[in-house]
Amino acid sequence: MTKLLSVEAVSWSVDQQVILNNISFDVSRGDIIGIIGPNGAGKTSLLKCLLNQYKNWQGSIKLKNKALTQYKPHELAQTFALVVQNAPPIFDLKVYDVVRMGLLPYKALFARDNDADKKNIMLALAKVGLASSEAKYFNTLSGGEQQRVLIAKALVQKAKILVLDEPTNHLDIFYQHQILQLVKALNITVIMTIHDLNLAAHYCNRLLLLDKGNLVCDNSVDQVLKPELLTNVFGLPCYRDDAKHCGVPRVYFYPASDVSTVIPSALNSALSNNRQGESS
Ligand SMILES: Nc1ncnc2c1ncn2[C@@H]1O[C@H](COP(=O)(O)OP(=O)(O)OP(=O)(O)O)[C@@H](O)[C@H]1O
């Protein structure tokens, strides 16, 4: 796969507190990368460095072999589309106008939309299942619908890399899957922070596990979702079910005090497998 983004030894500190420590990884075209880790691990900070929103990080981030810092803002806007929860008040706009904002990196200020622009906007809204919502106010939509509008904006933006910060937060299970299915079906490169490890397993082809600003593991779902590793990072006993529901493993966490009453036999066998793995 072609390398799109190359992150080398990126560190970021605020007031001598190290928030990201020497992070290196590559992103290839078509990757769907989930950044996982506990609260405060540095997931959002890493996204913000990738988007060049912070200026004082150290290290190197290259987009197609050229330093990110050498790109003009509109060039970056043509490359990255950001989808965040809790969109700012600027989105007191109609759905059509929010999606239209995806055209801005390509347009002169105050340029009018042509027929092709309008067609693109409506096509993007149709792709996210919101063609009949163009005249509604963005702020009146549900969280899941707002996410879909922002994805439509990203489509109009023709972004090469879709960056999502906790896209499934506040969504019910149906919309969690709907958003991630939609994201996967776009067939573009995706980098997202995500708390739900089983959702991440389902939709990502690679996971980056962060802990206290360090990249603890960058690998396939199968290699990152190891009970021992996750127990170390999240501080809770973890059991992995390898029955491969829909082709992926599932992980479960338990309060330490409840472990022996929840699934004693399954957990014991998982722990003993771990121990065997350690000794081999
Ligand atoms: N602009 C900032 N100034 C000072 N500290 C910051 C800033 N941004 C983030 N931090 C600190 O960096 C650490 C990592 O924050 P970050 O938001 O990246 O974590 P996260 O992994 O995304 O957490 P969560 O899962 O809670 O969203 C936290 O301790 C946070 O307080």
TrEMBL record:
Signal peptide: none annotated. Residues 5-237 form the ABC transporter domain. Keywords: ATP-binding, Nucleotide-binding, Transport. GO terms for molecular function: ATP binding; ATP hydrolysis activity. Belongs to the ABC transporter superfamily. This is ABC transporter ATP-binding protein.
